[in-house]
Each structure stands twice: as structure tokens, then as C-alpha cells.
């Protein structure tokens, strides 16, 4: 065997060499590792054996690992390890001779090793149990095999359809049609009655917070007057509203005057009205609305609930369409490519 030099400062010290093998028994063709370890002081000169392609005849060396050095005792001792991967293709009991290393030009040997290699057991008494090579068997297709193909084809069809749609839209250059839903506007008296019903349902405010109750009630009446009679009652005092209404409808103003006066007393003079007084003023508000409301003409044309708005496609819109065509078309081509590749892998 050849020798590999590893140089360190010289000194005299104790040296130990140990060789171990992972498995003493192998089947033909199996592998095992032989490990060589040298323990010495850090100031020694070491030469490790360089093994050729065989340890002994019949035992082949497949790989020689790089030496590995561990520092022990605060770098006072070195433990150098090297591994050899071996195998054999002949059944026999092999004697592996000791490994020889040189430390400061002095020879040290490991213990010898043994390796038993077995052949594969064969039942020669029953030759009828041996079978020749089987023919090629067809493997049935499963959903996992065809699922990527199906998904790729579906994706290609969808993307292709979307791309064609964008092309048609671009070539026709049709305007973009938007449908705007319009909430039908309630007549003033219906809207006012709806809000009064909400106030009526709030019994706690009517009993415990008269200021809130009258504020909300007069707010509804002021909004109704503004929509019904066409003047801004929201910005007028109670007296100004009554004076203006006297010019419109004198019959309906009497009870409304009582409502506004009570509301002003509650809001500005901290008046505490009785429960029946609150109910009476609520009734007065309802009567005023019913007396002054304008009924809808059944023959009048109803306002549409949907409005179609046409917008001409801008240059930016055309660019967006072209980009959409390019993206969906490219994605469809990629999906087609994946499908074709999968068909080739499955059937060819």
C-alpha cells in the first residue's frame, strides 16, 4: 500500500490505531464501511495508508472518504478518521490485513478484520419454482393519470372562449353598456308616514325623552312641507312655517300650530307633556299629512327602475382589450401545450 503524508510538528507521544467494520457478513454485491481511526498528540507527523481499488483479492474498494480530524483535550490530541466503502462479488471468508500508519516515521498497526460474503440462497431441489421473465403488462389508466389532461383541456376551452369574446368585442367596437339601478322615489306623504311609523314604534323616546320625540316628529313634518309645498321649511321657525302655510291651506294649519307650539315648549322651555298630549300631536301630524297630500295620478308614467348608459370605448379601453386578448390567448396556448405533452406521456 502507498502512504499519504500529513505533517504536523514533531514530538513523542502515545499513539493508538483502531480499525472497525460496520458489518462482518454481507450478501454478494452488498456494501459496508471500514473505519480507520488514529489517536495521537497534535504535534505528530502522520502518514495514512492510501488504498488502491482492492483491499485483498475479492474485496473491492468503492470509495475512500477524506480524512476527518477531531480536536480533543483543548487541541492537545487529534483523532483522525478515514472511511473505506467496500464490497465483494465472490462468496468467501476474507481476511483483511491490518492497516499500517506511520507516526513520526514509526510504524503502528491496527488489528486485522474478517469479512464473510454469502451468495444468494437458491433452491436447486425445486426447479419448478423458478419462473422466466414475465411479459410487459398494460397498466390501467386511473383518474390521477388523466386528471391533469382533463383540467388542461377545460382550461384551454374556457380561456380560448374568453379570448374569442374579447376579439369579437374589439372588432365590433361596440360601446360599453352599463345598467344603473334606480331606487324609486316615494311620494312625500308616503315617505313622511313611513318615518312617523318609525317614531311611533319608539315608545321609550315618547315616554322618557320628549325632546328627542318632538325633534324627530317636527323634522318629519318640516321635510314633508318642503317637498309638498316647495319652500324650505327646514330653515324656518315654527311661526314662519305656520304663517306661510296659512297662505296655502288654512284648514289644516290649526292642529299643526298646536304641534309646533308644544314642540317649542319642550325643546326650549323644558316642558314635560303628558302621554296623551304626545299621542294627540302624533295624530295631528298624521291628519295634516292626510289632509294636504297629493294623490298620485294612476295614469302617470312610472319612473324607470333601471337606466342603460352607453359609453364609447376609449383608447385606454381598446388597449385593455388588446392586453386581455394577448393574456388569455397565451394562457390558452400554454394549456394546449400541457395537454399535448400529457397525451404524449400517456400514450406514446
Comma- or semicolon-separated keywords:
single chain, 348 residues, alpha+beta, Immunoglobulin-like, 6-stranded antiparallel β-sheet, 4-stranded antiparallel β-sheet, elongated, Protein BatD, membrane, transmembrane helix, transmembrane
Average pLDDT score: 82
The helix count comes to 8
Compute the separation of the termini in Å: 54 Å
Strand proportion: 15-25%
Nearest-angstrom radius of gyration? 51 Å
CATH class of the largest domain, please?
Answer: Mainly Beta
Name the poorly predicted regions. 1-12
Number of beta-strand segments: 15
Give me the CATH architecture of the largest domain, please. Sandwich
Main sheet overview: 6 strands, antiparallel
**How many domains in all?**
3
In one word, what is the shape?
Answer: elongated
CATH topology descriptor of the largest domain: Immunoglobulin-like
Q: Assign the structural class, choosing from mainly alpha, mainly beta, alpha/beta, alpha+beta, or little secondary structure.
A: alpha+beta
Q: Spell out the helices and strands N to C.
A: EEEEEEEEEEEEEHEHHHHHHEH
Tell me roughly what share of residues is in helical segments.
Answer: 40-55%
How would you portray this structure in words?
The protein has helices at 143-172, 188-201, 203-208, 210-229, 238-246, 253-269, 275-292, 315-347; strands at 2-6, 16-21, 25-27, 31-41, 46-50, 54-56, 59-64, 68-72, 77-87, 92-96, 100-103, 106-109, 113-118, 176-181, 306-311. It has 348 residues and is an alpha+beta fold. It folds into three domains: 2-118, Immunoglobulin-like, CATH 2.60.40; 143-181 and 310-347; 188-292, no CATH class. Residues 1-12 have low confidence and may be disordered. The chain crosses the membrane at residues 149-168, 319-340. This is Protein BatD. Keywords: Membrane, Transmembrane, Transmembrane helix.
Amino acid at each position: 500500500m502507498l502512504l499519504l503524508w500529513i505533517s504536523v510538528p514533531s514530538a513523542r507521544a502515545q499513539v493508538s490505531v483502531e480499525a472497525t467494520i460496520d458489518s462482518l457478513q454481507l450478501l454478494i454485491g452488498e456494501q459496508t464501511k471500514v473505519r480507520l481511526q488514529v489517536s495521537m498528540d497534535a504535534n505528530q507527523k502522520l502518514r495514512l495508508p492510501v488504498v488502491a481499488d482492492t483491499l485483498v483479492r475479492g474485496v473491492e474498494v468503492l470509495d475512500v472518504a477524506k480524512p476527518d480530524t477531531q480536536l480533543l483535550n483543548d487541541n492537545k490530541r487529534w483523532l483522525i478518521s478515514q472511511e473505506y466503502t467496500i464490497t465483494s462479488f465472490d462468496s468467501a471468508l476474507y481476511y483483511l490485513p491490518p492497516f499500517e500508519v506511520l507516526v513520526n516515521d514509526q510504524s503502528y498497526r491496527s488489528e486485522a478484520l474478517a469479512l464473510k460474503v454469502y451468495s444468494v440462497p437458491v433452491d436447486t431441489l425445486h426447479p419448478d419454482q423458478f419462473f422466466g421473465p414475465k411479459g410487459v403488462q398494460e397498466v390501467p389508466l386511473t383518474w390521477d393519470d388523466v386528471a391533469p389532461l382533463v383540467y388542461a383541456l377545460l382550461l384551454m376551452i374556457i380561456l380560448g372562449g374568453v379570448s374569442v369574446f374579447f376579439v369579437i368585442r374589439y372588432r365590433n367596437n361596440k360601446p360599453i353598456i352599463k345598467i344603473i339601478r334606480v331606487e324609486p322615489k316615494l311620494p312625500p306623504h308616503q315617505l313622511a308616514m313611513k318615518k312617523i311609523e318609525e317614531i311611533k314604534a319608539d315608545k321609550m323616546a315618547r315616554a322618557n325623552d320628549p325632546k328627542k320625540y318632538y325633534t324627530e316628529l317636527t323634522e318629519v313634518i318640516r321635510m314633508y312641507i318642503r317637498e309638498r309645498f316647495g319652500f324650505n321649511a327646514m330653515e324656518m321657525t315654527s311661526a314662519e312655517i305656520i304663517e306661510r302655510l296659512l297662505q296655502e291651506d288654512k284648514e289644516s294649519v290649526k292642529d299643526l300650530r298646536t304641534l309646533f307650539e308644544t314642540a317649542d315648549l319642550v325643546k326650549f322651555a323644558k316642558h314635560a307633556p303628558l302621554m296623551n298630549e304626545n299621542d294627540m300631536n302624533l295624530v295631528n301630524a298624521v291628519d295634516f299629512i292626510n289632509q294636504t297630500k297629493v294623490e298620485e295620478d294612476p295614469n302617470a308614467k312610472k319612473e324607470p327602475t333601471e337606466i342603460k348608459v352607453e359609453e364609447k370605448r376609449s383608447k385606454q379601453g381598446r388597449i385593455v382589450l388588446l392586453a386581455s386578448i394577448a393574456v388569455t390567448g397565451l394562457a390558452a396556448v400554454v394549456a394546449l401545450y400541457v395537454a399535448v405533452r400529457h397525451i404524449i406521456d400517456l400514450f406514446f
